[in-house]
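Q: I'm writing up a methods section and want to include an example of the input and output format. Could you take the sequence below and give the corresponding predicted structure tokens, formatted cleanly so I can copy it straight into the document?
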Amino acid sequence: MAEPLPTLPDLRRMLTPGHLRDAAHRLALGIPMIDDVLGGGLPLGAVHELHPCRPLDHGAVSGFAGALAALLHNNKSGKQIVWIQHDYTAMEVGALYGAEFFGLPLSSLVVVHVPRVIDALWALEEALKCRAVDAVIAEIAEDGAVDLTATRRLALAARDGGGLGLLLHHRPSVTSSASATRWEIASAPGVRDAFGGLGRTTFALSLIKNRCGPCGCWTLAWDYHERAFFIPALPLGVAQTARDRSARARSARAA
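A: Here is the clean output for your methods example:
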């Protein structure tokens, strides 16, 4: 009797590298619906790509990367976080500012400025190899320099170091890569705090590539005091039942 053909999830698991299948070596976001899709959390010892949904969402990309690094540092502690930015990137979207509002401890944050993209990739690769580093974040404006060969080198370096590599693009990348996941990020409306001030930072996340499972879309809020993600409450009230609905629908809503 012939064996049944493997399903798409079976093929995906067969083709996924062993270190990405290790459920124990992951960064859990604390949101079950996302962690389940990621196979238990964001794989460590791997590189992940982030890019904005729109040009005005660069801050959201930096904020989400900072939140992930703060969450990882809070869980492991004692290691450094390296943030790499080349000069053109700083001129285009601004230098790193307000890292403490991500929840990043400034005493553990190392900021590296380099003049060229190739220098940023070299610094990212070398930092990923270092086991004294929790996370390495690199902002890259020129997507053509980050091809499949470059991301393979970065993926191997991350596997050796065991940390979290975050590659921040300034626009959606259309090139193939060896990254474990690819995220499209936008800012989302948040809910004000009890005093009417700014509440938790809220992100609209789209997981558009996942080597460990399916993709999906979610809205998350980040509390930098607690260093934790939450599912945000709806910023607006739920719309009333339309008047042209049946009496049964209106009575069911009232009940």
